[in-house]
Design a protein that fits this description.
By secondary structure, the protein is α/β, with parallel strands linked by helices. It has one domain: Rossmann fold. An eight-stranded mixed sheet has the order 1-4-3-2-5-6-7-8, sandwiched between helices. Helix 2 links the parallel strand 3 and strand 4. Helix 1 crosses helix 7 and helix 4 runs parallel beside helix 5. The protein is globular and about 75 Å long. The N and C termini lie far apart (about 65 Å). Bound molecules: NADP nicotinamide-adenine-dinucleotide phosphate (NAP). NADP nicotinamide-adenine-dinucleotide phosphate binds next to helix 1 and helix 6. Keywords: Fatty acid biosynthesis, Fatty acid metabolism, Lipid biosynthesis, Lipid metabolism, NADP, Oxidoreductase. It is an enzyme of class 1 (oxidoreductase).
Length: about 280
């Protein structure tokens, strides 16, 4: 089911347009909603838990004066998702999409509940792809817009957690890089945010109690979002909030690009030639 409700008590702050925030009912999405409202964005808040969204929407409308709207949707449900897509396609006031809603599954591949993995792929991969597609044409036509995709550092280190979860986040990172090149030519900004472990409900929801994590690895959610927004303000395409040595990231990217000329050639590498193997 999908419902919408509006809340507004605008005062004098000029609007920066409307930000659509998925997964706004808790954690990273709820903090982004707070920060974006304080920057002057009107908000469309998307998640399944309409009661939590409404409490947040009411508070932000009251405290900041922006217009807030609740759009209840289960983004794994095609009919619900289509309503959000429709909104993104038809509302020219939308200037920012935050693809944040996500879930994790814990455990090994052999132990995994494949139905839960499929739901995760629907939420972490299919939904942000379809929502990005829904908003991208309008952004490109208007030569403006910001797309923020929440990936994860696990996109870079699949050995550290579930391979299926990290795979969904590697997808988000790759899609973001590709869209940076394609949409960037049309004046659209695309940022991929790669949080490390962040203190939110996702851990308990996935059955990995947050208390079991080394505390020095855990960032508070407000700190994470503020760092990610600082990265956006600095024009970063990929933001890794805890990475001090940013040259390490640049070096990785340089090494990856250096492979480019050698990855698709007519001939196999010499070590694969029959004569070499014999
Ligand atoms: N916390 C971390 O350590 C960490 C690290 C790296 C990346 N991330 C990523 O950050 C993003 C936000 O996660 P979080 O840490 O803030 O976790 P969270 O507190 O569990 O928030 C997840 C959000 O997604 C929404 N959601 C879940 N299933 C949904 C569905 N089927 N349809 C629509 N919305 C749904 C939830 O709302 P409802 O339950 O109301 O639907 C909630 O608002 C995710 O993409 C996650 O993969 C998190």
């Amino acid at each position: 089911m999908s419902t919408a409700a509006s809340h507004s008590s605008r005062t004098s702050m000029p609007s920066l347009g409307t930000a659509v925030v998925t997964g706004a009912s808790s954690g990273i999405g709820a903090v982004y909603a707070d920060r974006l409202a304080r920057r002057g964005y009107d908000l469309v808040l998307v998640a399944r838990d309409a009661a939590r969204l409404t409490v947040l929407a009411d508070r932000l409308a009251r405290e900041t004066g922006v217009r807030t709207e609740v759009l209840q949707a289960d983004l794994t449900n095609p009919a619900d998702r289509a309503r959000v897509e429709q909104r993104l396609q038809s509302d020219a006031s939308v200037t920012l999409l935050l693809n944040n809603a996500g879930m994790a599954v814990s455990g090994t591949f052999l132990e995994s509940d494949i139905d839960a993995v499929e739901r995760m792929i629907a939420l972490n991969v299919v939904a942000p792809t379809r929502l990005a597609a829904a908003v991208a044409k309008g952004f490109a036509a208007r030569k403006a817009g910001t797309l923020i995709n929440i990936a994860s550092v696990l996109a870079l280190v699949p050995e550290m957690f579930s391979g299926t979860y990290s795979g969904t986040k590697a997808y988000v990172l790759n899609l973001s890089k590709s869209l940076q090149a394609e949409l960037g030519r049309h004046g659209v900004r695309v940022q991929a945010v790669l949080p490390g472990a962040t203190r939110t409900e996702i851990w308990d929801r996935a059955g990995t109690p947050i208390a079991h994590l080394p505390q020095e690895m855990l960032m508070d959610v407000d700190t994470m979002v503020d760092a990610a927004l600082a990265g956006l303000d600095q024009g970063e395409e990929v933001t890794i909030p805890s990475l001090e040595a940013v040259h390490e990231w640049t070096a990785l990217e340089d090494a990856r690009r250096a492979l480019g000329p050698f990855l698709s050639l007519r001939d196999p590498a010499r070590r694969y030639l029959a004569a070499a193997v014999a």
